[in-house]
Amino acid sequence: MRIAILAAGVLAASLAGTAPAPAAEEHLEKMDWSFNGPFGTFDRASAQRGFLVYQQVCSNCHSIKEGYYRDLRGIGLDEKQVAAIAGAVNVATLSEDGQPAERPALPSDKFRSPHPNDRAARAANNGALPPDFSVIVKAREGGADYIHALLNGYAEPPAGVKVGDGLYYNAVYPGHQIAMPAPLTDDRVTYTDGTKPTVEQMSRDVTTFLTYMASPEMESRKRMGVKIVLFLVVMTGLTYAVKRKVWADMPH
Ligand code: HEC
Questions:
Q1: Closest of 68, 43, 74 to residue 217, by C-alpha
Q2: Which of 93, 119, 133, 139 is deepest in the core (most CB within 10 A)?
């Protein structure tokens, strides 16, 4: 069955000629994420680089309304670093006499959104709404693999494909025409740890960060799962031993 699908894919690809990855939508590349599997954890360094990408690029358009600055502790930043990141951002408050004012954000504040509301966000983006990132990784079929592929999916439209006004060709986006201009180009951000900021690397890092933001509790949840399975294994052994002991003298 699998071979048949593969063969059909190869045939389709060869028939499609030079079209850039037309089948990408159905066949997302399965990435080897550090957070995959029952023992998965977040690659802290990658998530920190990913935060930088979010902060410097994506946060101009995309909010993370359910995220708090203190959540950054979970990707390995210490208290001082988090306080500094929050403190560099101004959030709305009220002055002594009740007038609207601004103050530096605290770790206990939610991430500041780029736009005051959805209408303003659309107005700034040709009518398209950049979706909130709080749970974007969970909200898209394919999850992290999809987000990563989408960011790498920009290409010249294949011959004969007309791309609408204010839209961009993306081989991975459903329908292939997306209102988001390619957000990443090589060296778009400067990494301080020597990692080369290629589009592929930045996509990987920002996807790791967004996966963390969508499920910051993942590591403790998986640890608990492993403990429970271990407990059940031990319990099964004990129960069996007790059963043998209790029934040992029973003729059968
Ligand atoms: C200039 C504004 C802008 C920037 C910067 C930007 N985006 Fe977007 N993004 C958009 C808009 C607008 C949409 C909605 C596209 C549509 O509806 O066609 C979008 C949609 C998306 C989607 C949803 C796609 C889907 O399947 O619905 C993802 C994921 C995404 N962006 C990721 C990112 C990431 C990651 C970054 C940073 C590396 C980023 N964006 C930077 C404007 C932006």
A1: 74
A2: 133
